[in-house]
Structure formats: structure tokens, C-alpha cells
Request: fold
Amino acid sequence: MRNRRCAVDKRLRQLIRGDKRVIAQTITTVENATDPKVLEQIFPHTGKAYHIGITGPPGAGKSTLVNVLCQHLLTDGKKIGIIAVDPTSPFSGGALLGDRVRMTDLSLHKDVYIRSMGSRGSLGGLAQKTKDVALVLDAAGMDYVFIETIGVGQVELDIAQVCDTTVVVLVPESGDSIQAMKAGLLEIADILVVNKGDREGSDRFMLELKFAFELREQVTGWDFPILKTIATKPEGIPELGAAIAAHRSYLEGCGMLEKARKIKLKRRIHELIENRISSHLREHMIGEHELDTMLDKMYRRKLNPFRVAARIADRIIRPQ
Amino acid sequence: MRNRRCAVDKRLRQLIRGDKRVIAQTITTVENATDPKVLEQIFPHTGKAYHIGITGPPGAGKSTLVNVLCQHLLTDGKKIGIIAVDPTSPFSGGALLGDRVRMTDLSLHKDVYIRSMGSRGSLGGLAQKTKDVALVLDAAGMDYVFIETIGVGQVELDIAQVCDTTVVVLVPESGDSIQAMKAGLLEIADILVVNKGDREGSDRFMLELKFAFELREQVTGWDFPILKTIATKPEGIPELGAAIAAHRSYLEGCGMLEKARKIKLKRRIHELIENRISSHLREHMIGEHELDTMLDKMYRRKLNPFRVAARIADRIIRPQ
Reply:
């Protein structure tokens, strides 16, 4: 027992020092939920990393942007973790080989740790797993944790909720922007980037976006920046870095960072409780045979699933 | 009391007759969850509609395809419900005006009911709400319920689970197809459609897909069709209709339809129980003040959210 404890402490120390092998192993443990204690152990060592979400439609050049932005930040001696949830990201092996090779360079840097999250299979818990992995990278001493997601669905909005600053990346094509707006992406954006800014129509697109956001600036107090970048050159990257720093100062200055992080913690608590109850449910709900009989009746519309669910739930909930 | 019951019965009869005004009102009630009894009341009248999912990347022409396919099916005197969850769908007001006008024509047909689901705000429960709306349309006597989703995220995979036949629509551009595969879309496809089949490279793309799916055919026993359509002309629509009918026959013939629907019911039961427990949780979890104090401690890493969540959950769960 004591030996085991020593081993745990040792691994934790290695993690906190940023040992890449231990980071990888810890993330795997967390992803597979093989040892629920791990998150408990690392939590006290978290809270220092600044979380930056990079999201936007496929093909907006998010990974390239993350890549050059990281190279920019590394010159300040910062440690960076990158979580790629976007299935089209070269970080997660989704894009062209040329891209992937370029990204691998970054992953070899001693101060960078890159992890891609499979969106296949584990879809249900993807956002939660991403949050867990972010905790591991936070504990491992990363100054910045980037979370790159393909901005379309529920998962992205969930993940945006763990980020301190969310950068939405668009390209000068109105189709993408309409889609992004519809998907609620622009509502979660703290910084808007029009990448591939050398494409035709980019100035007009920037103007349209500025117009659309005039009202919002006044409401929140944050002087919402809309930046133009060309990640492949790269151009506009120091400005993006400065905008992220400015947003952070803004949040810290008005006490919003603490407030927002507490709200996130609260949401997390709710999720954790629901998870625990769900697994209790799976174990204790009802016998398989009893359920099959009931399903047969429901299929023939002789039994009402809404009523059945209420009955089972009431059996599980402790009366208050 | 008796009067209210009479009114409920009357409305239910109107719904079952397919009264469009009552369908609309019932859907609104269901969407807002203002009366949880409604779903209980309509459930016994469901189970007759055949659910067809139409999903694929944005710009694949899903809505146009649904439009012409419905016109094809209407000639058989069928009643059709359409649920548009795709935020870029003209059904839900997302596409160009020209499209929207064309779609409105269909919505004026006496045997067609179209409902669009907002993906904004209600994202969390979108898949579940969609299932509820499908139940309403089923009870309202629709022979077919089409559910059109933009195929990228969790919501689509969830929704595919309520469909008897899922049609994945692609266009002859490899980028889209790679993305679709990554998103797990092709795993849920029962029928694959290459729309805009007059575009360059469509034959090659069809061949690639056929090659990729050769293995799958042998595993499931269903002779997985890959069809070419040009929805705007329209071309290939009777063939698509026939493929859907063939898939239905296949499912019915081997008993799979019943089996799959029971699995869906089982999943639904789990969801319903979890919902009920979640709302119980929200009401009885913990006092706001107590939680705020705890959040403050957690923010300062003096208290562990994983342990807190476990404690609260155990307070709620009835010991078995």
C-alpha cells in the first residue's frame, strides 16, 4: 500500500515536471477512465494554465494558425499544450500529409505537447474527456492549453465553455460565415479571425463582420477585435497573440476570469454528479430480462416509456 | 376536470387526423416541455411512421433532395412530415431565398408538414427534442418522417439512431467525403447518395466509395447501395425512393426493424430516466449559498470537485 502510494506520488511529480511520457500515460488513463482517482490527484495542481479555444468551420486553416501562433509564443519561453478535437485537423491526423509533417515538427519541441482526441466512438463523452485532458496538461505545467475544435456542433460549444479565450476562425467566404453564425459560433467568440486574408473579398467580409458586431461591443465592454491573418505566410500572428493577451488582461482586470472559471467549475460539478448517477443507473436500473419484456410491450404500444422512465427514476432517487 | 379531459381528447383526435394547426401547437408544447403529459398521450398512437434520416455535409443539396423525393412519394398519396435540424437548410430558413421559396411550395401541400428545429439555444437537448417532434408527426398519421440534419456532430449521430433508414448525401469532392468518414457518418449510412452527380469527378468518386464499402456489404447482409442523383434536375429520385423501400423490406424481412426499434426505445428509456434525475438534481442538489462557498474553495484548489460531486450524488441516490 505504501509502495503504491510512493509510486503514485512519483508519477505525479513527474507529471508536474512535464515529463512527456508520463503526460501521455496519464492522458490515456484519464481517457479510458481506468482510474478515477487520477483526476482527484492532479486537480490541486491545476488552475495555472490559460485555455485558448480555436474553433471554426473545416478548411479555415485553424491548425496552421495554432501552429504559427505557438511558434510565436514559444519565443517567450512558454510551455504549450495542444488538444486537437477537430477530426479534419492535421494534429489529429485528418488533413493532408504535407500539413501533418509540418505539425510533427512542433510536437518534437521540448516545450510542446500535442494530443489528438478521437471523435469516433467516444462522441458522447468527448467534451468531458477533452476537459479532463486539459486538466492533465494544466497540471503538467503548460502556460497555454490550446483546444482546436471543428466549429459546428454541441461538442464545440461545450468545449468553448472550458476556454478562457475563444478564437473563432473564419475565411472570406460568406457561406462559412452564415453557417458559423447559425451554429452559434459567433456568440462564443472573444476574438474573431479572418484567416486566408489574402483571398478575394476578405476586406469586404471584415467590414461586414465589424458591422455585425458593433452592437455587441457596447454590451459586453470588451472591445471585440476582428483580425486578419494569413497563417501560411505567416501574417498577423503577433497581432493575434496580442489580442489574446489583451483579452486575458481584460478578464483579469474586471474579475471576470475568476467569475467565469467558477461558473465553469459549477457546470463541471453538475456533469460529474450526473455521470455518477448515470453509472449507478446502468448498474442498478432494472434486470435485463424485465426490461426486455417491457420493451416488447412498449414496442406494441401497450406500455408507455414516459411512465416507465418516471417509475424507474423514482426508484433510484432518494426522497428529499 | 372532465371538461379539460374532453378538450385534451378532442385535441388528440385532431392531431391524429393530421390537423396542421394542432400539429404545430403540439410540437410547440413538446419543444417547450410545457406539458410532459402530451408525449404520454400521443405515444400509444405512434409506431406507424417510417423514419428516414437525410444527413451529410453542408452544401450537399440535402434539402433539394428531400424536396424532390417528397414530391415523388406524394404521388403515391403518402403523408409526409419533414423535420429540418440543419441550420443551413432552406427548410429552417438558412439557405438562399430562391431555395426557400421553392420549399415553401412543398409546405403548402395538404399532405406535407414541415418543421424546423432551432439549433440555437436548445443545443443540449436538440436530439431529444427532435425525437419528440418525430413522435408528434408519427401520431399525426405521417407515413414518412424525414429528418434532415447537417452531418457533422453528436446531434446527427443521436438523431440517426431514431431513423429506420439513414441516407448520407455527399458531393463529388473528396474533402467532403474524408470529413464525412472521419465524422463517423458513413458508419451510420444505409444508403449513400452522391448528389450533384453531373459535377466533374463524380464517376471516379462513386468508384472510390464502392471500393471502400465492398467489405461492409458482406458483413451486414444489406446490399449497400451507392446512388447518383442530380436533385436540381431532378435525376435519380425514383431510384432513391426504390432503395429506401428496399432497405425497409430488408429490415422487415429479417426482423431487424422491430429489433432496431426496440433498441431505440431502450436508449430512449435511459435518456428519459437521466432527464428526470437531472431535473431532480437541479431542484434538490444543494443550496446556492453552500455551493458558492464550495466553488470558492474549489477555485482556490482547497476542495476537490471530483470528491464533492461524489458526495452530492450519493446523497441523491437511493441505496439499493
Q: What stands out?
A: The mean pLDDT of chain A is 82.
